[in-house]
From TrEMBL:
Compositionally biased region (Polar residues): 322-333
Regions of compositional bias (Basic and acidic residues) in chain numbering: 14-34, 45-56
Segments of skewed composition (Low complexity): 342-352
Organism this protein belongs to: Vitrella brassicaformis (strain CCMP3155)
Pfam families, per database record: HhH-GPD
A Gene Ontology molecular function term of the record: hydrolase activity
Top-level taxonomic group: Eukaryota
Name recorded for this polypeptide: HhH-GPD domain-containing protein
GO biological process: base-excision repair
Region called Disordered, residue ranges: 1-83, 304-352
SMART domains cross-referenced by the UniProt entry: ENDO3c
Listed Gene3D superfamilies: Helix-hairpin-Helix base-excision DNA repair enzymes (C-terminal) (1.10.1670.10), Hypothetical protein, domain 2 (1.10.340.30)
Length: 370
């Protein structure tokens, strides 16, 4: 009897152990499966992170050719950096030549003088001047350029000097490391391209090159974007260009010359086609000056200079959909008086303009005569 009980007890224990073993096996399989899925989830997460990192790297690389200002500020993004592109607003017929001359006269009366400025310097000097002005004030950019030239009188000496030594001379302007790295890279590229005059890296050969070739030659340099190129061409080469910076963009939007959503590149592509060549230089300088000292026209109302008082552009800034030039009459003779632009008599004799709506914008049909 005891033997039978002992046998049954042993059988039950063996069965219990077998069941426990199966449970443990199932648990292990589950754990292994969970671990496998867990590893898969980890790998999937790592791949996603890697993918995002790669996307970010691509975005950084794509933005490498933009002006420093655009690279720092996302809302100032200049896109691909292409200067030659289709008209972004083909149905927007503003500004007309009359509007440009009127704004130029109003600002010249306020700020005084002939605002056309020529700078007697080399093309390389001008390029570096503009690059040093990125993301800083005019005062600081002027000081940093003078400091740089005092310490390193030649561009060859800038190229050959340790980067840290050059950075020390422009530290006040900010982003010294980035700016010096880009400037030295440009100098080396110019030397490698064989553009050396009396031992100096030189861009003087661009003076005899057509506009589009100048643009493409400069855009290939890291840190040189559309605004920098347009400034070098206008100030350094005397070409008919209309650079668009923060001040110009903000005032152009207020005047409804470009849509409120326009980027600086889009505004440049549009305004460079619309502003008459003979006033591009002076109008650009006047708009920049006005944007620094006019409270209504300064971006976010922040002045960089003493207030200029009342704004002469207020009558030209409409708040509805109809441009002021088209309200009541087709021209404003008082605005057309002066030495530049069409004579007042011609404006008075102009035929009535026909207005129609195209692409959400009111345009003058008879623009061909302008």
């Amino acid at each position: 009897m005891d033997l039978r009980r002992s046998g049954r007890s042993g059988a039950r224990q063996a069965k219990s152990e077998e069941q426990d073993s199966k449970k443990i096996g199932v648990k292990r399989e589950h754990d292994d499966s969970s671990g496998l899925h867990g590893h898969k989830r980890v790998r999937k997460h790592e791949n996603a992170v890697k993918s995002e990192d790669e996307k970010a790297l691509v975005q950084v690389k794509e933005g490498a050719g933009r002006d420093e200002t655009e690279a720092v500020s996302a809302d100032e993004d200049e896109g691909s950096g292409q200067l030659v592109a289709a008209e972004p607003y083909p149905n927007l017929r503003r500004p007309s030549a009359d509007e440009c001359y009127a704004v130029g006269r109003a600002l010249r009366d306020l700020h005084g003088g002939d605002r056309v400025k020529g700078r007697d310097c080399s093309v390389m000097d001008m390029l570096v001047r503009v690059m040093l002005s990125q993301n800083t004030t005019d005062k600081l950019s002027k000081q940093t350029f003078q400091s740089l030239k005092a310490a390193f009188p030649t561009w060859r000496s800038v190229l050959d000097a340790p980067a840290a030594d050059v950075e020390a001379t422009i530290q006040k302007g900010g982003l010294a490391h980035t700016k010096v790295k880009r400037i030295q890279a440009i100098l080396q590229s110019v030397v490698d391209g064989g553009h050396v005059v009396a031992g100096e890296p030189s861009l003087e050969h661009l003076r005899g090159v057509p506009d589009e070739q100048v643009k493409q030659a400069l855009l290939r340099y890291n840190g040189v974007g559309p605004k920098t190129v347009a400034c070098v061409m206008m100030f350094g080469l005397g070409r008919s260009e209309f650079p668009v910076d923060t001040h110009v963009l903000h005032i152009a939007q207020r005047l409804h010359w470009v849509p409120q959503s326009a980027t600086r590149v889009q505004a440049y592509q549009h305004l460079n086609r619309r502003v008459p060549d003979d006033i591009k230089h002076s109008l650009h300088v006047l708009l920049v000056e006005h944007g620094k000292c006019c409270v209504p026209c300064a971006k976010n109302g922040r002045l960089q200079k003493e207030s200029s008082g009342s704004c002469p552009l207020q009558p030209l800034i409409h708040r509805g959909t109809t441009p002021p030039q088209l309200e009541g009459s087709t021209s404003q003779p008082a605005m057309l008086e002066g030495a530049d632009g069409p004579p007042a008599s011609a404006a008075a004799a102009a035929p009535a303009a026909v207005v129609k709506k195209e692409g959400g914008e009111l345009v003058r049909v008879k623009e061909e005569a302008e």
